[in-house]
Amino acid sequence: MSVRLRSALACAAVFFMISAPVVAGLYLVVRSSLEYRGSVLTPDFIRVTRDHHLYFAPRYSDGYELARGFGMHVRSAYQDDVLGDLRTFGWIAVTAGTAAAFGLGWQASGLVLRPLRKVTETARRVAQSHDLTERIGHRGPRDEVGELAETCDTMLERLARAFDGQRRFVANASHELRTPLTINRTLVDVAVRRQDATEDVKRLGESLLLVNARHERLIDGLLALAEGERAVLDRRPFDLSDVAEHVLDQAAREAAERKVTVHRLLDPAPTAGEAVLVERLVQNLVENAIRHNHHDGEVWVTTRRRAERVELLVANTGLQVPPYEIETIFEPFRRLHGDRLRSERGSGLGLSIVRVIADAHGGTVTATPREEGGLTITVELPAEPA
């Protein structure tokens, strides 16, 4: 139950616990006052009604006993009527008062919790948009809600500084490392192409070029990871099917070299965001599907729209993937089947980049193992209205 509902129920319970004993006590008092007392119905003379005429019957006469019985019957009927009405209207009043207390408690708790709802909405918006520059900015008395809002603003400010510092460090380090790697690649390439280079030097140079290429891909992945972790503020509409088609055209050569057949089913899927980042997302998924495959394998790429979401599905054949390893493949530098030495298959950042880019666009990424081997990865992004 929500806090508002619990507060309303508490108000109703308090009213019921107070009013119910009051009504019960009132019922007992009235019942006691209406009980039979012999001194009241045993005077020396009793007035009796016969044929709408009044007369007095003396004590110990036949008329006296008749009048006394008649009076006791009237008093008993009157007592039953009064107590019945008191029970009925008393419990109706208790029930109506309890319902009114519930309604008033609901309204009062809504007014009290309104600032807290603002804090919650702002925190949820920040969590969904990854925009740590937004603040709650509570205006009001310095009460419990004000202190909570101030604490949340302080936490958001510290998180923003931490994330910005981390992204700047990764970006600066990647840029600084790219320059010496480029120089190394140039020097090794020149040494390998020299006419007097021996076969051992050429083989060593080719190995160094492979290692250098892996390091360059690693740096590019770190840059993409740092870029994807920031909030996407400039959202522009584009069609996910166009991006997927462009990526598949670029990957057609690699797929042909590896003898992998690519199947396309690209339906219109309008969305919004940064198309360059989404292109990197699709590129990573398609490259993984082609490279983590076997010869004469297959890849299926599908785009479609589902209500308020658009979907990108990339499925491939390949080795069996245990279900318990599904979540770990989205962690940085994690590879399936202990494949950490084959540099041509990437740096281990591909799916991590996919996840952070999808999160930055308000989307989700899920992976499902195929019974025949391989994976089916589904990316969902918010749809753009037509």
TrEMBL record:
Database matches in Pfam families: HAMP, HATPase_c, HisKA
Main localization, broad class: membrane
Enzyme class: transferase
GO terms, molecular function: phosphorelay sensor kinase activity
Enzyme Commission designation: 2.7.13.3
Keywords of this entry: Kinase, Membrane, Phosphoprotein, Transferase, Transmembrane, Transmembrane helix, Two-component regulatory system
Domain (Histidine kinase) ranges: 172-385
Catalysed reactions, as listed in the record: ATP + protein L-histidine = ADP + protein N-phospho-L-histidine
Cellular component aspect of the GO annotation: plasma membrane
Domain of life: Bacteria
CDD domains: HAMP, HATPase, HisKA
Cellular compartment(s): Cell membrane
Domain HAMP: 110-164
Name this polypeptide is given: histidine kinase
Organism of this sequence: Nonomuraea aridisoli
